[in-house]
């Protein structure tokens, strides 16, 4: 199973995990998940009132799918799920949820890590932090790109 979803409202990570676990096969012995949440402070320490993730529905969905497909092709996993939020997101709310299942833990850990490195640098989103001091567009950092390059 490889599934991606682009959503524009909050989601329940516990419900996603429960559903994911319900779809696993008998050979699966490891599940790794990652939950990214909106921060209340920018990298510079300024308060963030909201995070805006602008997107192009078709292109963004296509990028999520391509990244998930690549993860499934790169690691011995049986299932991958990516749920990514778009729109206006308040601090402490979920942004992205990734799950990977495999027979053994290393493949699940590697797949989840790989997916997040690719999502961070390649998913078709335009990210802006809004706060009392103004708005700032946010780009992936050199560290983000280096983490992505390490998979090549």
Task: Describe the protein's architecture and organization.
- The chain has four helices and eight strands; from the N terminus they run βαββαβββαββα.
- It is an alpha+beta fold and 152 residues long.
- It has a single domain, classed as Molybdopterin biosynthesis MoaE subunit (Aldehyde Oxidoreductase, domain 3, Alpha-Beta Complex), CATH 3.90.1170.40.
- The strands form two sheets. The protein has a four-stranded mixed beta sheet with strand order 1-4-6-2, sandwiched between helices. The protein has a four-stranded antiparallel beta sheet with strand order 5-3-7-8.
- β7 and β8 form a beta hairpin.
- α2 packs antiparallel against α3.
- The longest helix is centred in the middle third of the chain and has 18 residues.
- The chain is globular and about 50 Å long.
- The model has no long low-confidence stretch (mean pLDDT 95).
Secondary structure topology:
Blueprint: E1 2-7, H1 13-22, E2 30-37, E3 50-55, H2 57-74, E4 79-85, E5 87-89, E6 94-102, H3 105-122, E7 125-131, E8 134-138, H4 142-149
Helix pairs in contact: 2-3, 3-4
């Amino acid at each position: 199973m490889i599934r991606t979803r682009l959503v524009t409202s909050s989601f329940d990570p516990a419900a996603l995990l429960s559903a994911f676990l319900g779809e696993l096969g008998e050979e699966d012995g490891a599940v790794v998940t990652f939950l990214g949440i909106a921060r209340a402070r920018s990298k510079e320490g300024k308060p963030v009132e909201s995070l805006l993730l602008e997107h192009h529905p078709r292109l963004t969905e296509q990028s999520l799918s391509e990244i998930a497909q690549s993860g499934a092709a790169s690691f011995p996993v049986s299932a991958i799920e990516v749920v990514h939020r778009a729109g206006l997101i308040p601090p402490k709310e979920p942004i992205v949820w990734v799950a990977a299942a495999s027979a053994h833990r290393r493949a699940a850990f590697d797949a989840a890590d790989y997916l997040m490195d690719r999502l961070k640098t390649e998913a078709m989103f335009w990210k802006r932090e809004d706060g009392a001091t103004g708005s700032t567009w946010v780009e992936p950092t050199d560290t983000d790109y280096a983490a992505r390059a390490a998979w090549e």
